[in-house]
Amino acid sequence: MKKIEFTLNGALRQFDIEPDETLIDLLRRIGLTGTKRGCDTGMCGSCAVVMDGRAVNACILFAFQAAGRTIDTIEGVGDFDQPHPLQVAMADAGAVQCGFCTPGIVMTAKALLDEKPDADEEDFRQHLDGNLCRCTGYVKIKEALLSCSANATASGEAS
Amino acid sequence: MNYVDFKIPTSLAEARAILTELGDQAMPVAGSTLHVFLRDESPKVGVDISRLGLGEIADAGDHYAIGATTTVADLHAFSAPGWVLNRVAEAFVTQPIRNMATVGGSVVRVFPWSDWPIPLLALDAEFVITGDQERVMSAKDFFARQPFHHLQPGDILTSVRVPKMPANAGFGYFKERRTTTDFSRCTVAACVSIEEGTLADARIAIGAAVPMPIRMGAVEEALKGAKPSAAKIETAVLNGLEGVRWKGLHGISDDYARHLTVVRMVDALQAACDEATAQTGEQK
Amino acid sequence: MYHDASPESLRYVGQGPARLESKQKLTGQATYVADMAMSGMLHARVKTSPHARARIIKIDTSKAEALPGVRAVVTGEELDYRLGLYVVDKYILAKGEVRHYGEAVAAVAADSVVIAEKAVQLIEVEYEVLTPVLQPLDAIKEDAPLVHADLGSYDYFKPAFTPQPGTNIVNHNKIRKGDVEKAFTEADYVIERFYTNPSVQHVPIETHVSIAKWGTDDQITIWSAAQSPHTVKNLFAVAFKIPHRNVRVQVPYIGGGFGGKAGIGLEPLVAVLSRKAGGRPVRLQATREEEFSLLPCRSGLQQRIKTGVSADGRILAQQMTQYWDAGAYADYAVNVQRAASYSGSGPYEIPNCWVDSYALYTNKPYSTAYRGFGHVEFHWGIERHMELVASAIDMDPLEFRLKNLLRPGSRTITGEEITPHTGNVIKCVETVAESIGYGKLTDEEKEREQRTGRKIGKAVAALQKAPAMPPFTAASVVAKMNQDGTVTLNVSLTDMGQGTYTSLAQLAAERLKFPLEKVHVAFETDTDRDPYDWQTVASKGLMLSGNATILAAEDLLKNAYEVASQILRATAHDMDHDDEKIFIKHHPGRSISFKEIAVGYAYPDGNGIGGPLIGVGRYIAQGLGHIDKETGQGLPALDWTYGAHGMVVEADPETGEYTILKIASAFDVGKAINTGLVRGQAIGGMLQGLGTAFCEGYIFDEQGRLLNPSFTDNKIPTAMDLPLEVDAYVVETAQIDGPYGARGVGEHSMISVCSALGNALQQAVGVELTHMPMRFEDVWRALNNKTPIDNWITKSPVGSCRSAPELRRHE
After folding, report:
1. Domain span at residue B193?
2. Are residues C462 and C482 in the same domain?
3. C594 with C642, same domain?
4. Which chain B residues contact residue A129 at CB under 8 A?
5. Helix or strand or coil: residue B277?
6. Which of A107, B124, C467, C486 has its CA 20 to 30 A from that of C535?
7. What pLDDT shows up at residue C790?
8. pLDDT, tens digit, 9 for 90 and up, residues B55-101
9. Angle between helical axes of A85-93 and A139-148 (0-180°, round to 10)
């Protein structure tokens, strides 16, 4: 065990970690189970969290790599009473099916919108290319995310 | 990866000292994406080299100096005259991986399907290795064998120098895969410059369809000094394939690997010529 | 039920309210099995076989047992329980022999996953490697090695299946309608082809995961990502010979199933580990790699189709022989194969039709239900064949289909008569044909061809599917009123993302005349508390549980009216209700609120009557029967959902590469209960179908080792792989016995997508493709008349990204 600290969902916290512990293992160990394990090879995006403003796969990052950085997980994005606009849009558009990939998609999309509030359809397609979803066929996800863009009215309604 | 300890150096000197001391036991870690492909279970100390100030792209006159831990996402977002690597970055795996993977990590260990060596070969990039002294290697030398063999304990690949594309130059890049985020089965990068309507320079590199990325010297020679016509490009490509060992990846045959690469070599050269021509046209 | 309700009278049915549980999922609060933690919980890992077929000589677990933190190690030798849905052929852990790569031979429960993994590596297994049989056509040969030498001793479900001991044939079904041999001699053309597809993986994003606790007195509690809790309970109790009442299965949120979680999976293994570890709960989550090989996949299929047609394009006769690759165990594969026999012609009227359908054991990971239940696989051949037959007789393929599709008065190949209420496949086909502008290129498309040098092709493909289930399949629903007058539905049908719970809530709200917000569906199912439902499979959930929901609502109202009748001193006949109260029709002022009677009514003096209001709805498929084993004639289908896809593709004649420009789908859903959810199913299944159409598939080496069990080597489509344009339509021909006329559509969107793609490629560049998936190289080879490349069982390991043999050589 070795101590590190990083900012998790807005609060600076200390953690005792094993050197070979992945970030997803750490997050789930401390009860943040919204970050899902899908492949352990960085290929499905279910474990996407936001590190220093960018979506990354927590399953192939080691916990020590988070030291000193800022990590945001789904637990820090809106809640039942005050959902993030992305969450509202995805619920309304029917962009959620089994829900297992959903937290990762919210995190990836949020990172994009925070960086580029007027993201367009091509931005969303590209930024979501690392989030596998086997249920929805992505169309409604794309529609929902697009409706959250500052660009939503300018680029026209999703078909 | 079997990490028994980790170190988080904050300067190049500190990192080099740690790596020198630990020798083979050290595993430099930056983007972390390489872990998926390594099956080494011997005890290692993870050395986080992502905080050494090597994450910037600098304008260095005739070239851009890319810090080795610059992420692919940053290469994608970067936009400047004579910069074409955003086109390569765009086709690289997925967004989270683009956010994590670094240019250094993508070139020190070359896989059959690696993307980055091909454009860097075609662009005549140079690789700066910081050891007791600083060494600069040409792309051809760097990729002549597995690049990590060039590194002694304590050596760090610190920077990749990519020459700026001159105004009369064009770049063509193709990466073929089954799905958009798949590993490449055929990667082609071509870079040409046109003077007075003829090809002053032509460089082309291929990968994925061959065991290790290579420059296609015979094709280049045949094109230099020629007028860039479709027929000329096709002839140069078809006559320049001797000695290439084709190897299909991910279930494709060697035949198809060859066919696809040949088609894309022609396309890449054509695209590069078109771009160069358009740019020289604009200048006039 | 209520199929003829006028649309104006409906408040919720036919609308598109959002999924009930969206927010739980969007905030990361929804609890999946992998998210559950229990005190004392141990973690399990599995030792799997590196061989496809081998005798187990010896397993040495001593080193693993000695590792600190290890609490239980089990091997097949100490377990004597066999499981099977239809053929009881599978031990919990391999015993004596391994039959496929990735099969479990031993398992460990330990204090942590890391310790369990280390212990597994310390288990030493000595094998005598045997030659595997890998292809169905080899497995059916007389001298083939037997995958199950003891087949004759296995128990099986006798009314439907017929294993043939001494062979690898685990089931054979026949359809005999008319006389095909005679009809072939009368046909103007006879066209015959052979179609194939490999095994594929479901790829739910959540891998299989189970927790079990084997308590004292053999009280077993299982938490599992299982589609069918009562099937897990039943198979478990039967295999262990313990009373059903001792087995409790709980299912929280499921991260996708697609059939892969339909039967029983890891539950028995974690249960025996828990028993051995003294009753501590044990958890096992499959790795992604195990999801591909330890857990089941979809069957491969090789099928021969021979069709006789008249010069004017009427199908006179068709003979089909299907060889299904069941893999090492029968699981659902025999029922997939059986369903594929009686549905095997697709939605066409064929007066003379013979089908011989075999399920064959091979030494490959075993196969199970997968969205479409065999229909994706055989429709691949059927719908490609229709295209090729039409081309062979020089007829437009759309016209050829319209001439031969089922219509009222037609008889299916099992002799069922199609009625005006069965569903309208012709309308589905016409809808998608119109949507893609079938038969011509627009000016824009012509310009695009000019510009890109690519060729554009347009084609359609039709489909049909009925639920493949026992003819007496049943479901039940309990509706309970809460103190505030809201209603909770208890069901043990599961919602793994398809959205049925939302539809059930709509149906209950509709029938109760309550606002949707007043209806809650209890999300986590529990076989101890929730009423029976056979399984969550077959696109039968909405129809059977939907009807049961309506009946439960009616029962609840009946019971409420009974109490109200006493309080209001009126007959039920003279009463009506709104969302708050029951009132007397002719004296609307005299009423009693649901709140007051929800858990029993109390008079002002404290006297009570009534008791808690509960409604029970039971529904069973009616009028169906086992099909005749010799002729295949009979009535096996609860309802037929028809559909069609139209595809526009552009292909590069030089490289065989292609891009899908548009796909349009239409399904006759009877009545869309929830329009948004129907569209979700339509588009989601379409893209899943495209995955198996263009790239997915298991690749083995000649020793039967799976070479691509990962997301690096087995790609599934991403958001970037969507067709440029996607349209989904519904056709509504009410199903008389469906809830408000609805029928299921969970699987159909995946069926025939591959065929539509093959057909469109044929129209674009003239290639005759008979193997799915259609990789770019397959198209290129067909274009250049090169021998098709069949490397699904490959001589030399193809480049695996993860194993990267080339890298090692350079080192």
Report:
1. 169-283
2. no
3. no
4. 94-95, 180-181
5. helix
6. C486
7. 76
8. 999 999 999 999 999 999 999 999 999 999 999 999 999 999 999 99
9. 140
| Closest partner CB to C203 (pick from A102, A134, A140) | A134
- CB contact set of A149 (below 8 Å; sequence gap of 6+): A113, A117, A118, A119, A120, A124, A155
pLDDT of A155 strictly over 70: no
Neighbours of chain A (3+ CB pairs under 8 A): B, C
pLDDT at C796: 60
Interface pTM, i.e. ipTM: 0.96
C811 pLDDT tier (thresholds 50, 70, 90):
very low
Report which secondary-structure segment, H or E, holds C121. Answer: helix C113-122
pLDDT of residue B40: 83
**Residues in chain B closer than 8 A to A62 (CB atoms):** 1, 3, 6, 29, 32, 35, 46
Q: In this structure, are C414 and C502 located in the same domain?
A: no
**Confidence band for C804, pLDDT divided at 50, 70 and 90:** very low
Task: Confirm whether C808 is domain-assigned.
Answer: no
Q: Are residues B155 and B184 in the same domain?
A: no
Same domain, C440 and C335: yes
Q: Say yes or no: B43 contacts chain A, CB-CB below 8 A.
A: no
- My answer on whether C563 and C492 are in the same domain is yes
Number of domains in chain B: 2
CB contact under 8 A, A2 and B6: yes
CB contact under 8 A, B8 and A68: yes
Task: Tell me what the pLDDT averaged over chain C comes to.
Answer: 96
Q: Specify if C671 maps to a domain.
A: yes
Query: Domain containing C124: what range?
Result: 33-132+208-285
- State which of B114, B141, B163 marks the end of a domain: B163
Residues of chain A contacting residue B71, judged by C-beta atoms under 8 Å apart: 54
Same domain? B225 vs B138: no
In the prediction, which pLDDT does A156 show?
43
Q: Which residues of chain B have pLDDT under 50?
A: 284
The closest alpha carbon to C174, from C156, C159, C157, C162, belongs to: C162
pLDDT score, position C694:
92
Buried b (16+ CB within 10 A) or exposed e, A140-151: bbbbbbbbbbeb
Measured between CB atoms, which of C781, C789, C806 is closest to B211? C806
The 3-state secondary structure of C280-333 reads CCEEEECCHHHHHHCCCEECEEEEEEEEEECCCCCEEEEEEEEEEEEECCCCCH
Domain count, chain C: 3
Amino acid letter, B55: G
Q: What predicted TM-score, i.e. pTM, was given to this entire model? A: 0.96
Confidence at residue C797, expressed as pLDDT on a 0 to 100 scale: 54
